[in-house]
Fold this protein.
Amino acid sequence: MRYDWTPLGRSAIGFDRLFDVLDEVQRTAEESYPPYNIVRLDENRFQISVALAGFTPDEVALTAEQNVLTLEGRKSEKEEKTYLHRGISARNVKRQFTLAEHVEVKGARFENGLLIVDLQREIPEAMKPRRIAIDGIAASNVTQIGSRFA
């Protein structure tokens, strides 16, 4: 259940930051499931690990659209069971990750209850820095501006 703090914020001068903090805490609590890690493997490779205990690969959909990676898990109970204790969540999940420009999903796999998503930044050749030859100076003789004029 989400509370709308806006009406209180309008009448409470000087307390607007408090309502922002309350809203942030509430949103963070809602967005904490499922837990995940993001690891930088090197300068251009990253990995997202999402804990999806109890999910099978056919219950999970991974979609990349523009710069957003969306993970959706739909739990399907195929048979009725009588649980004496249910500690493993059976709820549906949805989590979105905003990807930086030129970061592409290279693959995904399940490993020990974790969904592992491999990402790689691939900057197009046209966007990479390139050396410009100056009239009268061969490009191989040009030093970097930072080291020449420091």
Notes: Residues 146-150 have pLDDT under 50 and may be disordered. Strands lie at 36-40, 45-51, 60-65, 68-73, 93-98, 103-111, 114-121. Residues 1 and 30 are 9 Å apart (CA to CA).
